[in-house]
Design a protein that fits this description.
alpha/beta, Nitrilase/N-carbamoyl-D-aminoacid amidohydrolase, eight-stranded mixed sheet, 25 strands
């Protein structure tokens, strides 16, 4: 007879240091798993404390609070076990302090009968956004000891529960070639659990899916993966997306980019079918490692599954079906993921800062247009995920008298949202000068009206003239002029727009959104205290090329939505008025475009990708651009000028990157010097590598 059991994964929307809230959500997930008759529940990496606790991972009192929270979870599990009577084994991620002073990224393994042990992460993430070795010790691959405080095994353990054998890979463990799953295969495990905190980046979900499927197939196991959800630390967006694979195929997907606090995903699996794979490809047993097994007497399996509790794929009734994602082409899928991720992040910022929405200084250009649209998407998606009644209760209490409860007579969800909610959520402000045009004003107004935002406009030229008058009084013999003072006269316009919009945001108790993008950040093409003003830079993780594609896609194709009112695509037609323009700062009295000031954005972003992703220097980047076919449009010398200009500007302006606002990590790359790319403020501007590039060009 075959052995079946029900595995559940929980994706949690946790918050650093929110021990009471985190514990509450964990207990809620445990009860939901009991209600689903689950035999195993997997929760994410560091779910008890939050992944983004940073240097507090080394604080003694932090670990005291962690221990207290774990005790509360154990007590609640005991009570729930008595209530539901289903044998269930639970894995919960947490930082674990060893009395000698070492801190480990661990998972507690427990049931209603108590704590059974800790498994510890063996390979720490140390690239990109990750700095785990700063806080944690990597666990030695072949070691198990007894924790002196809890008196349970910790380390490279395997749980053996009446013949059901369970091993662990924690996040980064599964991303390396010599993954612990190879050892677990030799130890004859039936199930591998992977508690993860894997942040969103474009294309990353497909990579996760591959290693989960490969782990299930190659090791002959059921492989379960649980991930965090939401914008936990304010910049990293965790996209949930729990998965369970068995017999080398995916049998269950959890929802992604969902605003709910707890997402449970569960499925019944056939352990005997996986054991057949291991019988066929068996290897010698590593007897030495059997001493590391933790023996339990929980009866997790049944011969006849309870089909009343067997979902087909996921249980979230508002899930954007995975089959739909599979049907999208690459660009469509990337654009959808980015919009969902950024909308998800904005929802958390509004909820967790206890503010009353956002303010955007609208220029009528691509960056501010997308930023405003994303605020709308954040509420549109939350509305469809929660339903109108629950969504309305999450809005500021002072708004509710003016926002009627939803009914069909008020139109569809979108109409109700734009008419009653968005005017309170988002304020858009256009601030013109003598150099502003009717084109950008009309574009800004059209987008604001399309998404239901409150729109204001005023002219700041008198303020600009006042500053020019003050400076001219200092230099009476040589007043400001465009030939000598181009940068100063441009920047004063951008900076003059900052105080008024800040005042508006303060008065409204709203968060001011900065609008600088990734491409501009690389080259310093932004005015400090101008377009960098704000609390949160929503599009700072997106290249200009990506932003222009997203705007065009939202105008013409639209974001796929599957929610309370069924499947549809949401388009923003007014973005047309932005998409037909060439990007311009509108700060000079003559016609001005960004690409004339800098270089073609597609070249700029290709250079940036080569430098940051493939870690190339100028000569190699030139060769790579030629291999990509750019030599058909530009000569090697023209490409060389672009590369030199990129590196000169990049090296001249790192201080600007240190001064920019927090933003979301979206692309594979980032220029945030605090979390991703550290670069010296003072440097030699790649002088020698650029000389080598020009020498190479001379030989062509």
């Amino acid at each position: 007879m075959a052995d079946y059991l029900t595995i559940a994964t929980a994706s949690l929307r946790q918050l650093p240091f929110d021990f009471a809230g985190n514990t509450q959500r964990i207990i809620k997930a445990i009860e939901k798993a009991y209600q689903a008759n689950a035999n195993i529940l997997l929760m994410p990496e560091l779910a008890l404390t939050g992944y983004g606790c940073e240097d507090n991972f080394t604080f003694q009192e932090f670990h005291e609070a962690t221990a207290n929270a774990l005790e509360q979870v154990l007590q609640a599990t005991s009570m729930l076990g008595q209530k539901y009577q289903t044998p269930m084994l639970i894995a919960l991620g947490l930082p674990l302090l060893y009395p000698g002073g070492q801190v480990y990224n661990a998972s507690a393994i427990f049931s209603a009968t108590g704590l059974h042990g800790f498994t510890c992460k063996q390979f720490l993430a140390r690239n990109g956004l990750h700095y785990e070795p700063r806080w944690f010790e990597a666990w030695p691959r072949d070691q198990v000891i007894t924790h002196p405080h809890y008196q349970v095994p910790m380390g490279n353990i395997v749980i053996d529960s009446l013949g059901v054998r369970i091993g662990f890979e924690t996040c980064e463990d599964s991303w390396i070639s010599n993954r612990p799953g190879r050892d677990l295969y030799q130890r004859n495990v039936d199930i591998i659990l992977n508690p993860s905190a894997s942040h969103f980046a474009v294309g990353k979900f497909d990579i996760r899916e591959q290693f989960i499927l490969e782990g299930s197939r190659a090791f002959g196991v059921t492989y379960a993966y649980a991930n965090l959800n939401g914008t936990e630390n304010g910049t990293s967006i965790f996209d949930a997306g729990c998965m369970i694979a068995s017999e080398g195929r995916m049998v269950s997907y959890g929802d992604r980019f969902n605003c709910q606090d707890v997402l449970l995903n569960y499925v019944v699996v056939n352990l005997s079918a996986n054991r057949v794979t291991r019988i066929i490809s068996s290897e010698a047993i590593n007897n030495h490692q059997q001493q590391w097994d933790v023996k339990l007497s929980l009866k997790l399996t049944t011969q006849i599954p309870n089909w009343n509790h067997t979902p087909s794929i996921t249980i979230a009734d508002n899930n954007l079906l995975h089959e739909f994602w599979d049907d999208l082409n690459d660009d469509d899928q990337d654009h959808s993921e980015i919009c969902y991720a950024l909308a998800n992040g904005l929802w958390d910022w509004m909820q967790r800062t206890h503010t009353e929405g956002f303010v955007v200084s609208m220029s009528g250009g691509a960056d501010s247009g997308l930023a405003a649209t994303l605020v709308y998407l954040s509420h549109y998606l939350a509305l469809h995920q929660f339903g109108a009644t629950d969504y309305r209760q999450k809005l500021p209490t002072k708004w509710l008298e003016a926002i009627p409860e939803y009914s069909d007579e008020l139109g569809d969800y979108g109409t109700w949202l734009r008419r009653y909610v968005m005017p309170k959520v988002l304020v858009c402000l256009y601030q013109g000068t003598d150099n502003s045009s009717a084109v950008t004003f009309n574009a800004a107004q059209a987008v604001a009206e399309n998404i239901g935002a409150t729109f204001h406009h005023w002219n700041v030229q008198q303020l600009v003239d006042g500053y020019i008058h003050l400076v001219n009084a200092v230099y009476p013999e040589h007043p400001l002029n465009w030939e000598d003072d181009d940068i100063a006269l441009q920047n004063i316009q951008a900076r003059t727009r900052s105080p008024g919009v800040w005042m508006l945001a303060n008065r409204e108790n709203k968060l001011l959104i900065a609008t600088s993008n990734l491409s501009e950040s690389a080259l310093g093409y932004a005015t400090m205290d101008g377009d960098t003003s704000g609390v949160l830079s929503v599009v700072s993780g997106l290249s200009k090329t990506r932003i222009r594609k997203l705007n065009s896609w939202l105008e013409k194709q639209g974001l796929p939505i599957d929610g309370k009112h069924g499947f549809h695509r949401l388009t923003i037609p007014a973005l047309y008025q932005i998409n037909v323009q060439q990007p311009t700062a509108e700060l000079r009295p003559t016609e001005q475009t960004d690409e004339e000031d800098l270089m073609p954005y597609i070249i700029c972003d290709s250079i940036m990708d080569s430098y940051l992703i493939r870690q190339m220097w100028p000569k190699s980047i030139l060769i790579d651009l030629l291999m990509q076919g750019y030599g058909q449009t530009y000569t090697p010398k023209q490409l060389g000028f672009f590369i030199e200009r990129w590196f000169r500007l990049f090296c001249r302006n790192p201080w600007k990157r240190y001064g920019t606002r927090a933003g979301f990590h979206v692309e594979q790359i980032s220029l945030d010097p605090k979390t991703f790319h550290r670069f010296p403020l003072l440097n030699a501007s790649f002088k020698e590598p650029l000389e080598q590039m020009w020498h190479y060009i001379d030989t062509l």
